[in-house]
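Researcher: Here's a chain I'd like modeled. Treat it as a single chain, no partners, no ligands.
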Amino acid sequence: MLVEPRTRLALGALGAACFVSVTSENLPVALLPQLASGLGVSDSAIGLLMTGYALVVAVSVVPLVALTSRWDRRTTALVTLGMVVVSNVVLAVAPNYAVAIAARLVAAAGHGVFWSVVASMAARLLGPGQGGRATAVVFAGNSLAFLFGLSVSSWLGTTFGWRLAVLVVAAVAAVTTLVIRVTVGPMPAVAPASGSRIAVDRTQFPVDVTTLLVVTGHFAAFTYITAIIARYVHLTGPETSALFFAHGLAGLAGLVLIGRHIDHHPRATALVTTAGLAVCMLTLLVSPGPVVAGTAIVAWAGPAAGIGVVLQAAVLRVAKDRPDLASAVYIVAFQIGIALGAALGGAGLGHGMLPLAVIVAAAGGWASAVVVWRSKAFASAA
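Model: Modeled as a single isolated chain. Structure tokens:
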């Protein structure tokens, strides 16, 4: 399928928006020790910046998506990206932990709304039958966030300080907002279905259950990946950035492979994503040394990169007539998973039991793989 140059630019701009959104959301992961030291709190307290962010998104996304349901989709994307800019500027100058929390809440309020529209915007650009491919294209920004966004943020934080790293993210978000305004045309909203209909939709329920299980597992470990790297691979400081880079590169490769097959083999790609997470975590638990552990952490990025693509594509398949609000319900499950995973991992870290986070991740991967195997929601549309 040939894609017009203007459409390519628009997809690239949406991908850049995904990049900056994911980078901003996960800054506490990349800057964990620097934020803890700079704000005078513990590592687990910085992990709560992820938990609180996710809880705000989970609570606010459905009413906010309903409130903005008649907005032009491009306008929605621009406003929510503007909130990312404001959030990171405030975070960069935050004098204490309380202000840092408030700054994170600003971006969290718009986060769910942005992710409820970006996949459907991409699908509208490519046309019918291309939902999985469109999602994979723009979600490449996610993998690039882990390839460059988090690794560069980590390097900036350790070299020049975390405040400069956060300001750089704010600047990238501002530029991305301008690019979308120029390259993406107006997209009038599609009339939404009622939220109650979506909430009880049995076709989407297995997707939401899978989301909750696999995301809880993934973020139980990923939120504290810098601590995991230090324990299992024995790398700290700038050396961690190099492993972040390799992790992101593997994620980009995994996204390319999943994007090629998601529309034709949805169940197979979903199983690679869910069971793949479990395999990587089990390998990390039994690793005999830092080389195997480092390899497992890099390989982990492959299935991790597919989580959003596989799940969002499933939502678009089962909710073709109501993509925005259906995505909002899915985002609730996703954000609850982030909050629960970060909390479980933080509990393990706080009690000196970091392997508990890895065990939760392995369990979440296997449990979600069972749901995928048994659910028709991941069967091929054909």
